[in-house]
Amino acid sequence: MAIPHRVDTLARRWIGALATLTGTALLGACAGTTTAPAGAGPLSIAEQGSFFVGGSDRASNTLSDVPGFAPVGTVSVDQMYVRYQVPEKSSGPPLVFVHGCCLTGKTWESTPDGRMGWDEAFLRRGHPTYVVDQAARGRSAADPSPIVAVKLGQQTPHSLPVIFSAGRESAWSIFRFGPHYPKAFDGMRYPLEAQGQLWKQMVPDLSRALPTPNPTVAALSQLSARLGLAVLVSHSQSGPYPFQVVTQDRTGVAGIVSIEPVSCPSPDSDMQPYARLPILVLWGDYTADSPFWAPRVKACADFVKAANAAGARARQVMLADEGMPGQTHMLMQDRNSLQIADWLAAWMRGHWPR
Amino acid sequence: MAIPHRVDTLARRWIGALATLTGTALLGACAGTTTAPAGAGPLSIAEQGSFFVGGSDRASNTLSDVPGFAPVGTVSVDQMYVRYQVPEKSSGPPLVFVHGCCLTGKTWESTPDGRMGWDEAFLRRGHPTYVVDQAARGRSAADPSPIVAVKLGQQTPHSLPVIFSAGRESAWSIFRFGPHYPKAFDGMRYPLEAQGQLWKQMVPDLSRALPTPNPTVAALSQLSARLGLAVLVSHSQSGPYPFQVVTQDRTGVAGIVSIEPVSCPSPDSDMQPYARLPILVLWGDYTADSPFWAPRVKACADFVKAANAAGARARQVMLADEGMPGQTHMLMQDRNSLQIADWLAAWMRGHWPR
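Predict the joint structure of the above. Result:
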């Protein structure tokens, strides 16, 4: 199996020295895996780290069904994991990246074929980056209590949480790799040769079992306020969240980049929260023939029109119209993901000049 | 709530400029949160990214109970998420950090009170770092099928996976913050004022529902072989994994750092796999009075003795004997976590001179 791992020169030198010492031929195993963009150079980071935002305590008597351990106690739920990096030379607004359905913050890290992810790409373009795991996903804990309660016979199976997981066969057309698994669209730019690494990114999605609005919304609001003014970058299932943040309190929100949102606000809803707000709704290719996506593109166009009538600075962009045909729903991982990042960085400079 | 977030000078300047523009007093919200160690300076990184190791395809017809979506399909399970960083000036072996029970790779990132985590600390000490999420934990997907099967009535509640979650009340004495919640030991060095951020790190642990050996073991073996020679750093519940890797194939393993392992190999087992292998078993304070830990310290001492008799280079260390009393089970997050990192880095230089 090809692991998209890049070994830098110095690590390679160290491994090489060890190989000499131990007499094993380790260099061969590492050769040819360096895929760092030519001339990218080292990354200079002022700060990095991680923390949680939001969350609340929950008392439970069904934490565990392991004999010998107390099933009673207090856990924290609904918090949101945030990993951040601040570049040494910061020259743009902080970006908060929110993944979509059945995925985690991994979405924005290295691509499946081992190229630079958007977290690093935008860091290199001057933006502090904040990559989150939605509540009850990835490193943000889900509440085990409803499941353990059923196992212990205290509740019926009906009370188990709603779980959504997408098999690759059904994800295929939603991700618009092609009309149906495993057929690909002509000119489609996802690195399918590394698709195994994408399928490994996918996790069970418990968002339907969470309160409405999703606790991620309050956490994003808290994070944005803390950062001062941040651009919220959503993808797919998380599309509604930045709009919900703004509707409740836009204090910390500098703008919204909505990548292939599962929905936009209704054009009949109150548009005042969006007045003067830069909003970009960004789409890849092949939407017109997608029964799932075509109506969503249309609905978002209607929203953009209504928002602008109320004074927003909203724009809907089809990347194919910008000279980038063949992009998929997972466009931040497409072969030319850095070209799209450049386009998006330019859009941001237009709104937040340096 | 105190978010342990550090804002660097440049980001602060940018936010300050925006504050001036918007007329809001944002600087105040950010003041006093910088906790980067004085003189640490920017971090120069040759490479960073993430990928998955291991995993296998699983066909399921109980992926989802959401109406309108196919419950049938193929998902990937048992893979291990790896996030890595390689320093610009690399001068030590790669370290693979494996978290313990009910936790994720977050263990090794920023401490609950916002100080530098061991991932960055060892990167700054010259080591490429690889922080993983165990199989079925964090960003490494769990299989939803057994839960959905029960919800859909295809299986009985008895077939639900074994889940273990620790409430803070029971975790308290296992983490050795004190004899019982919420009483603290005298001189104990965990930053309890930020304990809320620790409880938010805790996630449900499904390791008991996984095959034996845990798929994480095969993934660690694959990762180590890929890296050439890596030091496997385990914590608590993951303690057995590096030993299991070595027993199967020690090709990629340079050494083992076993931090407060839940168990060590039996001294009656085959010690040959450990011949000439540097092994450190590291313990914090207050173990002698812990009914849970005291027998484990004793058993690991017996293992170290047996391993050395077979030619290993094993050592068991109580940090209190090294001038560091008051350390807890979560010693990589204790107040003096960087002092412990310095001690550990020196131990490594002793085995792998630069």
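Chain A touches chain B through 111 residues (CB under 8 Å).
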